[in-house]
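Per your request, structure below.
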């Protein structure tokens, strides 16, 4: 085995005019959760436990788009989703449409560990949360003043805002965005989904992803983050978490493709990531982080930048946003 490795992300497709203060806040948060994961791995916590621990921490901080600070639906509410996968036996759990569960990733873990199913959504997921005794809060807990303001901006522009905290230049009513999703206009492309991938000292891979989705999204919309094989995937070879244009990630089954080309084409981890980003996104924009059972760590994206951090047992550590 090559030792442990870990990577985290806070979204791909960053506004090039992102204020320096916010860039620094993002780097500080990524560094903090990366060090949290490193400490857990040095204490021999398993990969599946580490990805849950790290993503819970990201869900608790309102900076990125998961848990507290999640994007708002067109009705001004929060509907969160998450998934987690344990590579050795490809066990998985996913949830969607959560409105009161404080840490969606932990409910996804309970779906995997304590239910006969792999995916629960909306009222069924909320009922299961209460049966399991997880912490729940009012929907207002997840809503921030920034999000309320950005939802107003999105409605005025009649569009979906991806980077819902950073208004685009000219993103006012009557201004059509040159970017589109499924043929429909959108504004600045910078979703801020969070994710974590880990391989532990035993060579076990795991992955976890959590998000609030898109600002001004239709009620009931489900993205790639809770879809096993699209936004999240882990097996004996690798663990992968994706972020970006959810509809494109879904079409390309992006997370599964990384391990598939490793298995069927014999590519190394970074080669596989590069191949998938180049050949499986069509015209979509996205990024991903990945680890391999050999202790390797990799990432890739085809947009302006990706909030990410990665480290390995051999002493490598990086936190960055741009290429």
């Amino acid at each position: 085995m090559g030792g442990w490795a870990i990577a985290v992300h806070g979204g791909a497709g960053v506004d090039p005019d992102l204020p320096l203060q916010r860039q620094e806040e993002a780097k500080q948060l990524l560094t903090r959760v990366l060090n949290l994961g490193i400490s857990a791995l040095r204490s021999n916590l398993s990969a599946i436990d580490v990805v849950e621990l790290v993503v819970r921490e990201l869900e608790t901080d309102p900076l990125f788009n998961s848990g507290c600070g999640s994007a708002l639906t067109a009705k001004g509410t929060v509907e969160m989703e998450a998934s987690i996968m344990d590579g050795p036996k490809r066990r998985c759990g996913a949830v969607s449409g959560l409105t009161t569960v404080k840490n969606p990733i932990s409910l996804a873990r309970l779906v995997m560990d304590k239910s006969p199913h792999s995916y629960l959504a909306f009222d069924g997921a909320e009922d299961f949360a209460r049966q399991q005794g997880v912490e729940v809060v009012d929907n207002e807990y997840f809503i921030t003043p920034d999000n309320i303001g950005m939802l107003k901006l999105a409605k005025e522009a009649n569009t979906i805002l991806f980077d819902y905290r950073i208004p685009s230049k000219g993103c006012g009513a009557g201004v059509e965005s040159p970017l589109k999703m499924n043929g429909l206009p959108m504004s600045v492309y910078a979703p801020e989904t969070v994710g974590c991938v880990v391989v532990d000292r035993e060579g076990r891979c795991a992955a976890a992803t959590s998000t609030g989705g898109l600002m001004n999204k239709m009620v009931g919309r489900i993205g790639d983050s809770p879809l096993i094989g699209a936004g999240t995937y882990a097996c004996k070879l690798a663990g992968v978490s994706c972020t970006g244009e959810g509809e494109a990630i879904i079409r390309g089954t992006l997370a599964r493709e990384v391990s598939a080309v490793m298995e069927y084409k014999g590519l190394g981890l970074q080669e596989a990531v590069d191949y998938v980003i180049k050949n499986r996104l069509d015209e979509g924009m996205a990024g991903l982080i990945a680890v391999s059972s050999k202790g390797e760590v990799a990432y890739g994206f085809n947009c302006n930048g990706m909030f990410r951090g990665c480290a390995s047992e051999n002493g490598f550590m990086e936190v960055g946003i741009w290429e």
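The longest strand covers residues 5-12.

Regards,
D.
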